[in-house]
Amino acid sequence: MKRYLAVSGLFLAVACAPPDGELARSYSGAAGSIVDSGSFGAAAMNNHLVMTGQRSHVIDLAKRFAGEVDSTVTFAFDSAVLDAAARDTLRRQAHWIRQFPEVRFRVYGHTDAVGPSPYNKALGLRRAQAVVGYLVGQGIGRDRLEALASFGETRPLIVTQGRERRNRRTVTEVSGFVASHPIVMDGKYAEVVYREYVESATSGSSVSLEAQTAGGGGGG
């Protein structure tokens, strides 16, 4: 009898012992976790973060814009005139922006390090204004665009005291949502951020509004 009880106890101990590896996860983990490839629960967590204000829709949309469109155009030395390459880039920006009428944008102007700082700051602003003017000419509402006071030469991409075209640039960025838009008023931010990018049937205007550079002390 004692031998029988000992064998039975050993059997129960083995049967009740927690299984190893993936089988253990199937018993102790959430349903479906055994086939999880790394994104299990991601959708629910994203919804939770959005609803509690822990995730910014503006940041998500800004990343999407920067990933799908070239957000930068460059300029010749001491110039705020948009060349052919800049206009091509801005037409692509305008096409993307037209898909999201609820979204506002800012344009930041930059220069290289050549020239006095006050002049460069004014030059960077003229560049930003030239970009905004061109986007307006492409059918983007002026109330959705802002030419921010420029950074001048203070934020170079390439650290140099000489002329550098890559530093003579503007950057277009998502800044927020149009407060009066019906979708935004309904709080449907996720509908905006995750909307599929669809080719518009509306062709943009070919009107070009190029800003002319002002004379002065010369800068980058």
End-to-end separation: 98 Å
Low-pLDDT parts are 200-215
What is the strand arrangement across the widest sheet? 1-4-2-3
Secondary-structure-based class equals alpha+beta
Quick summary:
With 220 residues, the chain is an alpha+beta fold. The protein is 41% helix and 10% strand.
Secondary-structure blueprint:
Elements: H1 2-16, H2 21-28, H3 42-51, H4 57-68, E1 72-74, H5 84-98, E2 103-109, H6 117-137, E3 145-147, E4 169-177, H7 182-185, H8 189-193
Commentary on this structure:
- There is one protein chain.
- This protein is α+β, with helices and mostly antiparallel strands and about 220 residues long.
- Helix 6 links the parallel strand 2 and strand 3 (about 145).
- The chain has a domain at about 70-195: 60s Ribosomal Protein L30, Chain: A.
- Strands 1-4-2-3 form a four-stranded mixed sheet.
- The radius of gyration is 28 Å and the shape is elongated.
- Residues about 200-215 have low confidence and may be disordered.
- The chain has eight helices and four strands.
- About 40% of the residues lie in helices and about 10% in strands.
What are its keywords?
single chain, 220 residues, alpha+beta, 60s Ribosomal Protein L30, Chain: A, 8 helices, 41% helix
